[in-house]
Amino acid sequence: MSQPINVDLPHRLGKEEARRRIAANIHKLETQIPGGAKVQSSWSGDRLNLEVQAMGQAVTGDLDVEESRVRCKLVLPGMLA
């Protein structure tokens, strides 16, 4: 199993606006991946749990929405790590 990739994305939107924008646009991820993808997501408070399946691989992760940043943790399958 690979180590997770952690990325902090700073913003100036505030927690509620950042969460609203992510929620309103997460469905667009399916069309942004060449060949298409299946995206499953669910919210647990201010955390978005995410699974993206494409090209026979699955990437899982979560996004924690904070007041001035979004903390992303993605776990790549061994073939992509």
Report on this model:
- By secondary structure, the chain is an alpha+beta fold.
- It contains two helices and five strands.
- It has helices spanning 15-25, 29-32; strands at 5-10, 38-44, 47-54, 57-65, 69-75.
- A five-stranded antiparallel sheet has the order 1-5-4-3-2.
- The longest helix is centred in the first third of the chain and has 11 residues, at 15-25.
- The model has no long low-confidence stretch (mean pLDDT 92).
Radius of gyration: 13 Å
What is the 3D shape? globular
Indicate the mean pLDDT: 92
Termini Cα gap: 9 Å
Percent of residues in helices: 10-25%
Strand order of the largest sheet: 1-5-4-3-2
The percent range for strand residues is over 45%
Main beta sheet? 5 strands, antiparallel
Number of strands: 5
Q: What's the order of the H and E elements? A: EHHEEEE
| Separate helix tally | 2
Helix vs. strand class: alpha+beta
**Low-confidence stretches at least 5 residues in length (pLDDT < 50)?**
none
Summary keywords:
81 residues; alpha+beta; five-stranded antiparallel beta sheet; 5 strands; globular
Layout: helices, strands, pairs:
Layout: E1 5-10, H1 15-25, H2 29-32, E2 38-44, E3 47-54, E4 57-65, E5 69-75
Quick recap of the structure?
Helix content is 19%, strand content 46%. The protein contains 2 helices and 5 strands, in the order βααββββ. 9% of the residues are buried.
